[in-house]
Structure formats: C-alpha cells, structure tokens
C-alpha cells in the first residue's frame, strides 16, 4: 500500500536545494491501496487505511533510491503542495524554468516516471517565503483540478488534456494575501469547492481597487466545465488582517448530511454543499480586535470540528450538528496552552483521537475528541521546525520538517 505524507506548508515554504525532491515511501505497493484525492486525504481528516508502512528510511546521496524508498523523482522547481494519488497516478504542481512558470505533473505511482507535464501559467507576482504552488491539486479519478497562488485554476483530464481554465484574480479582483493565496481546492461529492477569504489590506505592488470589489467568497465548480454551480459572498464584520485566511474548505458529516466548513474572518461557518447557504456560524472573536490571519484549516472527526485560533492562541472543539448564530456556549471544550496549540499545522483525526502539532515548539499533543483531555504530549525534536500538517496510517503519524 502507499502513503503520501502531506506538505502544504502554506506561507513558510523553503525549497530543498535547487529542486524539491518527490520522495514516495512505499512498502508493498498495491493496486488496492486507498486513493489520496485531496490535501487531507480520503476522509478529509489526514488519515488513510494504508498498512505495512515503513518507520525508517534513507535516501542515497545520488538520489537513486535508498532504504524503504521505491523511487525518487526530481521536480523542475520548488512547490509545497501535497502529492495527490488516484489509482496508479500521482499529481503534483511545481515551479519551473527558474520560477518563471508553474506546471502540473502526472507521475507513475510504481516507477516515478513523469507521464506528462503541462505548463499551466506564468509567474505573475513574487511572494515572501512562498511560491505559486502552495495549493494542492484535487481529483475524482475523472479529472484533476490544479490551483495556484496567482488565482489560476485549471481543470485537466487524467491524460493531461486541458479541460478548462479560470483565473480568480481576474474574475473577482485582486488577491490581497500578504503571503500569497494558498487555499487548496477540494473535490467533495462530485463538485469542486474553493474559498477566497481575503481582506482589503493591499500589499507590495498589488493594484488598489475599490474596496467593495474585494470581498471574501466561496465557489462551487462543475469539475468537467469549470463553470460556477454557485458563488456565495461571505461578508462578515472583521477588521485588518483578521480577514485573511489561508485555509481550505473541509467537509464534515452531520446527522443531516455533509456540511462545508469555512474558517476565517473571525468566524467558523457551516454551509450546504448544494447551495452554499449558511447553516450555522460561530464568532470566535466577538470584539473584532485584529487577531491576525488564519493558516491552519479545521480538523474533523466524530461529528466534531477542531479549530485553532490565530497564531495558536487557543484550540476549541464544536459539535457540527448545530444551526443558527452560535454563542460561546456552543463550544464543547477549549485548550488555552499556547505551548501545545498549533498556528500553521492542521489537526489530524485518527482512530478516535485528535492530534495537534505545534510546529515551532515541535510538540505533538494527543487529545480525546469528546472531552479535550490531553492523553499525551511529546516533544518531537529534530533540527527543523514544522509547517506541514501531520497524516496517519498503520498506527503511525508522519510529518515533514522544514528541511525535509
């Protein structure tokens, strides 16, 4: 079976050497392995049922292989998106040609051979500590959707044919994110869901436009045509950098079906998948003081939502089976220890437990979902901090440090 550790380092990308190396850990690769169709995996919680996975590996200095390494394939440039797997194909985006363009690639799962590479756009802006390839791709096995920090969003067939192109910045005005647009599109129940949670602070050389044109919104796209199924503005009373959110939309299963969770702008909201209509909202910053940007997306499991406040100020859990405008009473539990609460890394749910990775202090904390009780908390160690979100399978948790 296969397991693809997630990256999605968002704004804090630093490439490893001149070209990021795609290293795929394998142990008995099998056609029966579970697909990894989006950034957070088949269950949208960071976990998979893959088994017989290694817990040690080394890469040869010449990058021809190594212990527990099936193959190594050099990418044409840097990129911090997660490899997406469907069947025997792996999809990933990368910068190319000295970072003047960005490409989508399809790689054979079993050999590492590049099956196709498509130039999907030209670099349109420079971003601090980031590049155009923070968003991960998503697929339903019929097509793959690539998205980039420029706002370019492209639908590609499994064989590499361009199906459609969209450009969110050209259609919906400037993307004002300080560290670059980084949300990943998510394929859920046959549709593509995209969030753009932006503010009105204009950074660097971003062209200034009328404020009323720069609103946050949610998009639902038809995967075959790229056309809007629906678009909903998400107008909320935030201020300053609190508007800015680098998160991706995450579905959660409730008693009444799947709901789409969107986190940012001082609020956590749940929406209908078919229309985008808001089901409930919770304001985690009722005074609307500037609490800064959000990076970590929400974790989900057991009908619960686990969310971290900006800059890891606290962590809170809520029952997803609610309606209307919620108050603090709707919070199931809260953890206020900033030594344990994540700022960048999205929480993991695996086999009845939540896991929170505080990347700067390099601490992993295991939590009971229903009570918030700390089951254990351990220092990870190592030379580098963590910006990647953890994933789990085979009773193991995998996470990638900033030095690879």
Give your account of this protein's structure:
This protein has 404 residues and is mainly β. The chain is 1% helix and 38% strand. It contains one helix and 30 strands. Strands 16-17-18-19-23 form a five-stranded mixed beta sheet, with no helix packed on it. Residues 1-28 have low confidence and may be disordered.
Sum this structure up briefly.
The chain has one helix spanning 168-172; strands spanning 2-3, 21-26, 69-74, 84-86, 89-96, 101-108, 114-122, 138-139, 143-147, 152-157, 162-167, 186-188, 191-196, 217-221, 228-233, 250-254, 257-264, 267-272, 278-283, 299-301, 304-308, 315-319, 324-326, 331-335, 348-350, 353-358, 363-367, 374-379, 391-393, 396-398.
Biggest sheet character: 5 strands, mixed
- Largest sheet strand order: 16-17-18-19-23
Overall morphology: globular
Count all strands and give the number.
30
Q: What portion of residues is helical?
A: under 10%
The residue-averaged pLDDT reads 87
Q: How large a portion of the residues is in β-strands, by DSSP E?
A: 35-45%
Please tell me how large the radius of gyration is.
20 Å
Structural class: mainly beta
Unreliable spans = 1-28
- The termini sit apart by 22 Å
Total DSSP helices? 1
């Amino acid at each position: 079976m296969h397991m693809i550790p997630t990256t999605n380092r968002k704004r804090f990308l630093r490439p490893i050497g001149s070209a990021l190396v795609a290293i795929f850990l394998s142990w008995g690769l099998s056609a029966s392995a579970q697909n990894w169709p989006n950034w957070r995996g088949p269950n949208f919680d960071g976990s998979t049922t893959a088994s017989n996975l290694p817990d040690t590996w080394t890469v040869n200095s010449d990058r021809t292989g190594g212990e527990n390494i099936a193959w190594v394939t050099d990418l044409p440039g840097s990129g911090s998106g997660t490899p997406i797997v469907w069947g025997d194909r792996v999809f990933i985006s990368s910068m190319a040609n000295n970072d003047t363009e960005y490409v989508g690639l399809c790689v054979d799962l079993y050999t590492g051979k590049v099956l196709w590479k498509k130039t999907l756009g030209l670099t349109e802006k420079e971003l601090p500590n980031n590049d155009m390839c923070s968003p991960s791709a998503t697929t339903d096995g019929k097509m793959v959707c690539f998205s980039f920090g420029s706002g370019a969003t492209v639908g590609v067939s499994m064989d590499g044919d361009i199906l459609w192109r969209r450009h969110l910045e050209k259609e919906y005005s400037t993307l004002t994110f300080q560290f670059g647009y980084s949300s990943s599109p998510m394929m859920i129940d046959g549709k593509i869901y995209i969030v753009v949670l932006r503010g009105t602070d204009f950074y660097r050389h971003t062209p200034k436009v009328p404020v009323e044109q720069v609103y946050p919104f949610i998009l639902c796209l038809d995967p075959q045509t790229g056309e809007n199924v629906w678009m909903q503005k998400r107008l909320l009373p935030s201020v300053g950098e609190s508007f800015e959110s680098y998160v991706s939309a995450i579905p959660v299963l409730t008693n009444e079906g799947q709901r789409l969770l969107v986190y940012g702008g001082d609020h956590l909201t749940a929406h209908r998948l078919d229309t985008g209509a808001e089901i409930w909202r919770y304001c985690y910053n009722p005074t609307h003081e500037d609490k800064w940007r959000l990076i970590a997306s929400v974790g989900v499991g057991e009908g619960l939502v686990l969310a971290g406040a900006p800059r890891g100020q606290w962590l809170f859990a809520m029952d997803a089976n609610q309606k209307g405008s919620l108050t603090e009473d709707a919070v199931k539990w809260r953890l206020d220890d900033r030594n344990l609460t994540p700022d960048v890394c999205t929480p993991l749910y695996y086999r009845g437990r939540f896991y929170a990775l505080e990347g700067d202090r390099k601490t992993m904390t295991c939590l009971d979902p229903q009570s918030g009780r700390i089951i254990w908390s351990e220092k990870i160690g190592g030379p580098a901090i963590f910006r990647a979100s953890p994933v789990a399978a085979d009773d193991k948790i995998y996470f990638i440090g900033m030095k690879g």
